[in-house]
Amino acid sequence: MVNKDEKKDYYGVAPVKSVMKRIKKDYDKDSKDWRVISSNDNDGNLDTFITKKPDAYWLKSKMLSPYSSLTMGSVVRNIDKDIDDTIGKKLSPNTMLRLFGMIVPIKKDQNIMAAGIEKYSQEHGNYLKKVIKDREPNIAYQMAKKVDEEFNKKYPQRKNLYI
């Protein structure tokens, strides 16, 4: 039985549950050489890029509290040719390593947990957004729009608390 809110189209914007199922499926096939890079966008949302050649998963999150967020995601196919391998290997003075953790509810009694060390770099995050924008020009706007729509639908009383 498929929930009508879930989309099978992993190329577009989908709730984080759909994208995390896809990430877990790919991770279970091959658990080596995964990278997590994050940065913030101009609206204060957290952009998280989970990369495994040849694909990248882009998650956009609006924080609801220190422990929860509203997140949407998208899959970008075959961008390894466009991304320089040094993004995953070099640290600049503006780069920080930090703990990464995410728990995504799938069913009432089933969750997907992801944890490890991520690289936080505004510079690398902006570069990945530029590469993805060249390939799919509208995806950043669509993800931000979808996150805001869901936030306004689920938390209308909090809509005007944020500027």
Give a written overview of the molecule:
With 163 residues, the protein is an alpha+beta fold. 27% of the residues lie in helices and 37% in strands. It has helices spanning 16-29, 122-135, 139-154; strands at residues 14-15, 35-40, 46-52, 55-65, 68-76, 95-107, 110-121. Strands 1-5-4-3-2-7-6 form a seven-stranded mixed β-sheet, with helices on both faces. The chain is globular, with a radius of gyration of 15 Å.
What does this entry show, briefly?
This protein has 163 residues and is of the alpha+beta class. Helix content is 27%, strand content 37%.
Question: Descriptors for this entry?
Answer:
single chain, about 160 residues, alpha+beta, seven-stranded mixed sheet, 3 helices, disordered N terminus
Please describe the topology of this protein:
Elements: E1 14-15, H1 16-29, E2 35-40, E3 46-52, E4 55-65, E5 68-76, E6 95-107, E7 110-121, H2 122-135, H3 139-154
Parallel strand pairs: 2-7
Antiparallel strand pairs: 1-5, 2-3, 3-4, 4-5, 6-7
Helix-and-strand structural type: alpha+beta
What does the oligomeric state look like here? single chain
The biggest beta sheet reads: 7 strands, mixed
Rg, Å, rounded: 15 Å
Helix content: 25-40%
Strand content: 35-45%
Weakly predicted, low-confidence segments:
1-11
What distance lies between the first and last C-alpha atoms, to the nearest angstrom?
39 Å
What is the count of β-strands?
7
Number of helices: 3
- Strand order in the largest sheet: 1-5-4-3-2-7-6
The ordered H/E elements are EHEEEEEEHH
